[in-house]
């Protein structure tokens, strides 16, 4: 395998990792601050993609669509938090799983009711379509580069928000001790709605960006949700830094596994069998990674609580 | 347009006449105890693959409505693309609804879970889509008919097309599950050139950047891929973005009418193989396409055509035999005396179709993306497993 191809695959891994980070960041914040397992996070990702496709089709502008996806997902997140999630904080994790699973079904069938069962059209805006030649002669999709840029920008923004602002202080305090921060006079209900809407907005943005290069259809959120859970388990539940490192690890492991494993098996096996075995093992790679991390660090790489 | 319209009228009149005749005959025969045929349709109407099931249902019900046969009852249930749900539904339909015929399953893994049990209990199963090799070869059964194809057929036709076009080195790719492995072996069965690389992707994978980089790097002449549903949409959009100048061939599943609008212009020019296309020139097809568009306000897909043909096969058998006489009914099905929207249609020894398979090209027509036949890949193709079937 040539170096150029290897670098291209590293970029691909980085790109898929950063999109996973957008998903995982919201999930880990919600779990860390509110102690809530939100299975419906994938539905917010879907809401973002559908809002982007709908608005882009109506107005002809991808950028309006992207803005709409963030707004729609944040609004959906806030409404769901106030209407449903708020009642779940004090309850058992099993109740939370049950209720948020119900939300998945409601979101999926609601979306089908609004948009129909057929996948929607959403494509890369003309200004970002095509590919560019990077130093070293690597041809790479401009939109994917833009996604990498956007992912990095959001990551930096999120670290500044959590680390340097008043809201960030409240979020971190909320993670450490929920009762104490409420006792200090912080409006904990508003803070929760805010955190939930923020997580939803990030998921919606990821949905719109990923939907643009993949497909916009009902049920698109659930596979990503599973990966996002793997990410936060690896990174340590509640840790933004963990989510970033975990997401990049998962993105790179997944991409490199898919490319390298079949060719490694090809060294000592017949091609057909090697691709089949390699592909099967590649689909397990991230779960093996998760198992290894948990053996070494049961609380995840940056877990606050073991 | 007038030609099509008179076609419909003539056909409706014809069907009405036949229905009345059949009705009268059956009344004479059974002393006014005409037994209705109960059909249980299990198909995917919610979740990821719902568009396929919806088209199957709509095509099937269009034929049922057009025929207006009061002796046909159809129960429709949603399998949610889950094998366990499909099994539960078929048990319910067989035990409490007492259906005579089951149909509608889209996915091979669901078909494998339902069909063997259903046909063993003496029910007929007419496949509108899924036709795994296990049910075509050693596992064939006298009560099982595939009206669509055998799963390998479209891939075989793609292999034949690649050979005919003289593609010397092909990059081939499919998801890592039984139908994906069958796809690549079906392709290789008729492809005489060299395989540059074969890649198995994950089932449900949506990002293909890694594979596209490998394809670019492989220096192959052309690409063959089988990625049904959302996987195909994702791949084609990313493929177009990558700007690789390489011919693409695949089975119709990634380019059928239900998902073409979601892929957009990226699909134009792609060659895909199918046993049906909306431009096949015969009266039955013209009537079907016009009636489908009028009723549902969209173009029919391959799945709709398969559903429609299945219902018409069933109706043709109902006119000739009573379902309570299983042997006679089976013979009537086997005769396949209906005007298929595909033109020539017959069953082979294992009750899978023997039919022509075409190469279609995705075109943009009146602002809509659709397919147009450009060549015939295989004529009167049966399948590779018929010999293993002892029936």
Automatic annotation (TrEMBL), chain A:
Under the cellular component aspect of Gene Ontology, which terms does the record hold? plasma membrane
* Location within or outside the cell: Cell membrane
Keyword Transmembrane helix, does the record have it? yes
- What is any one GO biological process for this UniProt entry? amino acid transport
Give TM segment ranges: 18-37, 44-64, 70-89, 101-122, 142-162, 191-213, 225-252, 273-296
Does the record's keyword annotation contain Transmembrane helix?
A: yes
Q: Which InterPro entries does the record associate with it?
A: ABC_transp_permease, BCAA_transport_permease
The alphabetical list of record keywords is:
Amino-acid transport, Cell membrane, Membrane, Transmembrane, Transmembrane helix, Transport
Q: Which CDD domains match?
A: TM_PBP1_LivH_like (cd06582)
Pfam families (UniProt xref): BPD_transp_2
Membrane topology reported for the UniProt record:
Multi-pass membrane protein
GO MF annotation: an example: transmembrane transporter activity
Q: Which PANTHER family match?
A: ABC TRANSPORTER ATP-BINDING PROTEIN (PTHR11795:SF442), BRANCHED-CHAIN AMINO ACID TRANSPORT SYSTEM PERMEASE PROTEIN LIVH (PTHR11795)
* Homology family: Belongs to the binding-protein-dependent transport system permease family. LivHM subfamily.
**Protein name stated in the entry:** High-affinity branched-chain amino acid transport system permease protein LivH
Q: Which organism is it from?
A: Limimaricola hongkongensis DSM 17492
From TrEMBL, chain B:
| Keyword Signal carried by entry | yes
Q: Which CDD domains match?
A: PBP1_Nba-like
Every copy of the Leucine-binding protein domain together lies at 36-363
Q: Which UniProt keywords apply?
A: Amino-acid transport, Signal, Transport
Cleavable signal peptide: 1-34
The UniProt record lists the keyword Secreted: no
Mind telling me which Pfam families this protein's record contains?
Answer: Peripla_BP_6 (PF13458)
Q: Name one GO biological process term.
A: amino acid transport
The record's SUPFAM superfamilies line, in alphabetical order, gives:
Periplasmic binding protein-like I (SSF53822)
Its domain of life? Bacteria
The name this protein carries in UniProt is Branched-chain amino acid ABC transporter, amino acid-binding protein
Q: Hey, which family's this protein in?
A: Belongs to the leucine-binding protein family.
């Amino acid at each position: 395998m040539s170096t150029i191809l290897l670098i291209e695959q590293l970029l691909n891994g980085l790109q898929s990792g950063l999109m996973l980070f957008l998903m995982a960041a919201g999930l880990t914040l919600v779990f860390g601050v509110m102690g809530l397992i939100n299975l419906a996070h994938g539905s917010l990702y879907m809401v973002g993609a559908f809002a982007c496709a709908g608005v882009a089709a109506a107005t002809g502008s991808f950028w309006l669509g992207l803005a709409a996806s963030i707004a729609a997902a944040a609004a959906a997140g806030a409404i769901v938090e106030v209407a449903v999630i708020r009642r779940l904080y004090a309850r058992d994790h099993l109740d939370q799983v049950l209720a948020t699973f119900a939300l998945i079904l409601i979101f999926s069938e609601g979306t089908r009711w609004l948009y129909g069962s057929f996948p929607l059209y959403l494509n890369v805006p003309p200004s970002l379509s095509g590919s560019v030649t990077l130093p070293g002669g690597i041809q790479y999709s401009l939109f994917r580069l833009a996604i990498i840029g956007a992912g990095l920008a959001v990551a930096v923004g999120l670290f500044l928000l959590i680390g340097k602002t008043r809201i960030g202080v409240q979020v971190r305090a909320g993670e450490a001790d929920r009762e104490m921060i409420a006792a200090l006079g912080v409006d904990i209900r508003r803070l929760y709605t805010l955190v939930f809407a923020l997580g939803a907005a990030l998921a919606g943005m990821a949905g719109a960006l990923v939907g643009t290069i993949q497909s916009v259809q009902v049920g698109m959120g659930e596979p990503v949700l599973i990966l996002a859970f793997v990410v936060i388990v690896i990174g340590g539940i509640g840790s933004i830094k963990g989510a970033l490192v975990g997401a990049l690890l998962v993105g790179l492991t997944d991409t490199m596994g898919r490319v390298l494993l079949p060719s490694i098996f090809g060294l000592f096996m017949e091609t057909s069998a090697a691709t089949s075995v390699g592909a099967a093992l590649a689909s397990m790679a991230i779960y093996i990674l998760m198992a290894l991390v948990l053996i070494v660090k049961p609380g995840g790489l940056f877990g606050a609580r073991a | 347009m007038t030609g099509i319209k008179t076609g419909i009228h003539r056909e409706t009149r014809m069907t009405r006449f036949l229905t009345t005749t059949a009705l009268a005959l059956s009344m004479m025969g059974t002393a006014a105890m005409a037994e209705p045929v109960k059909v249980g349709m299990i198909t995917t109407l919610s979740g990821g693959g719902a568009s396929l099931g919806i088209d199957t249902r709509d095509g099937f019900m269009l034929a049922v409505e057009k025929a207006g046969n009061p002796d046909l009852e159809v129960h429709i249930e949603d399998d949610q693309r889950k094998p366990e749900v499909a099994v539960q539904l078929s048990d319910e339909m067989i035990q409490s609804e007492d259906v005579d015929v089951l149909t509608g399953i889209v996915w091979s893994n669901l078909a494998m879970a339902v069909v063997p049990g259903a046909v063993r209990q003496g029910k007929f199963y007419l496949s509108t889509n899924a036709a795994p090799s296990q049910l075509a070869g050693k596992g064939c059964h006298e009560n099982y008919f595939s009206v669509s194809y055998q799963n390998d057929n479209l891939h075989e036709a793609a292999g034949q097309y690649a050979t005919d076009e003289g593609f010397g080195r092909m990059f081939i790719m499919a998801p890592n599950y039984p139908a994906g492995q069958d796809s690549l072996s079906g392709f290789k069965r008729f492809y005489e050139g060299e395989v540059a690389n074969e890649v198995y992707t994950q089932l449900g994978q949506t990002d293909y950047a890694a594979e596209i980089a490998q394809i670019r790097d492989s220096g192959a002449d052309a690409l063959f891929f089988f990625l049904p549903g959302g996987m195909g949409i994702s791949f084609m959009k990313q493929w177009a973005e990558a700007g690789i100048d390489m011919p693409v061939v695949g089975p119709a599943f990634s380019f059928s009418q239900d998902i073409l609008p979601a892929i957009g212009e990226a699909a134009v020019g792609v060659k895909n193989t199918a046993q049906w296309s909306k431009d096949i020139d015969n009266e039955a097809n013209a009537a079907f396409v016009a009636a489908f568009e009028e009723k549902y306000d969209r173009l029919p897909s391959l799945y709709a055509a398969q559903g429609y043909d299945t219902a018409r096969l069933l109706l043709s058998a109902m006119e000739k035999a009573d379902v309570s006489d299983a042997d006679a009914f089976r013979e009537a099905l086997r005769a396949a005396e209906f005007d298929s929207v595909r033109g020539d249609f017959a069953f082979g020894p294992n009750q899978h179709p023997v039919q022509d398979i075409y190469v279609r090209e995705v075109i943009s027509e009146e602002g809509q993306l659709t397919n147009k036949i450009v060549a015939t890949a295989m004529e009167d193709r049966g399948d590779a497993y018929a010999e293993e079937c002892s029936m």
